[in-house]
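FORM 7B: Structural annotation worksheet

SECTION A. Query
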Amino acid sequence: MIRIFPTGLRFWIGAGFALALLIACQPAPLLRAASVTPDLLTPNADGHNDVVVIRYALGRNATVSIYFLGADGAPRYFRREQPRPQGEYEVLFNGVVENQLLPDGRYTWVVEARDERETARITGTLTVSGSNPQPLQITGFSVSPPEITPNRDGLSDRATINVCVNRPAQLTVYLEGADGVRYPVPRKEVQRRKPGEAGCHVFDYDAGVDRGQEPPPDGTYTVYAVAEDALGLRDVATGTLTIREGGMPRAEILNGQVEFRSDISSGTGDYIPVSLGGFLYFTLTVHNYGSVPIRTSGPPPGTCYDLDQTFNAPQPGRPEGWAEESGAWRVGIDFDTSLRNYPFRWAVGGPEDLETRIIDGRPYYYLPAGRTALVTGCIRITYTPPRNPLYFWAGLIHEDVEIAPLNNRVDPHRVLIEGP
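SECTION B. Predicted structure
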């Protein structure tokens, strides 16, 4: 059935449809709503009113700014001209703007949205109370020494980085190279202050070699100290540190071979006979197969010991004897009933093998990377030990660092001490 409307009715129906279409085609409000709750902020990290919630809704895509106006009328931006698509948003605000904490006071908050057609704003008030007026600050920072040679030779192997902060904050220290790669610096474990406390903290950087890692490539690095408190406030201090001749030292007794002989035997049988009062001789080769020189110290190859001596004992021309030196490499000889580990020790090369460096006015001696050196020595058999026959063997000692399994108890030889 076909219904026919009167002319007047048809007019009003058409007008209503056109009005609805016109309303539907109008753009949505650019900024539909905005709020900040609660209206009190106490940014003191006590767990109460430490943050407020900022909510806003966009009817269209817009560029958004959120800022606070204080008594001076200057805007303090929390968000500045950030593009946002249409939708609803919620963000937490803890009082930090531009890495500064809002001082106590009454502020006008402004949520501002802008597109190519218009700019819309919604405002309200926020009171800030209990704000710490003291900015987070690194008050002391030092890197010492400014250059290190992290190769485990006991000299300038590590840097100490001191960082002082004026109030509680977490500290992060790292090196950054020109390539942007970062190398973390650990906090020194034993110190009076706990992590996060105000005051001075010590960081210790060994470039990783004490953990068996290769150090960063040689070069100059920027050292960053970053302090960040519970509110997210940050302060940064920078310095420089140069790494030179860095690398893991690596050396061995070549082929794991040691030649032992005595006055009366070349050492080719099941055991080496040596007369009481006679000498046991050895010969071996040290190979520095690493990428860095290794430091050594005396006595020189060719030195002879009595069986009841140690390298610490007074010697001709050296009345004070020799002491262990942290980071120095020495060849050692040990035997079954010795009273200490490797009592007889020698430098890993002679003057013709080693390079001399003057450091702080004192000479130090190094076997260059890739080089080998012949080491000889002897032991005068002054008594018969409780065990006889007994074994003698060699070792390559990195003093106060390690005796690697590769370099410990190398090539044992059985020795028989024959009485008079």
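SECTION C. Observations
Residues 60 and 86 are 5 Å apart (CA to CA). The first helix runs from residue 7 to 25.

SECTION D. Sign-off
Analyst initials: ____
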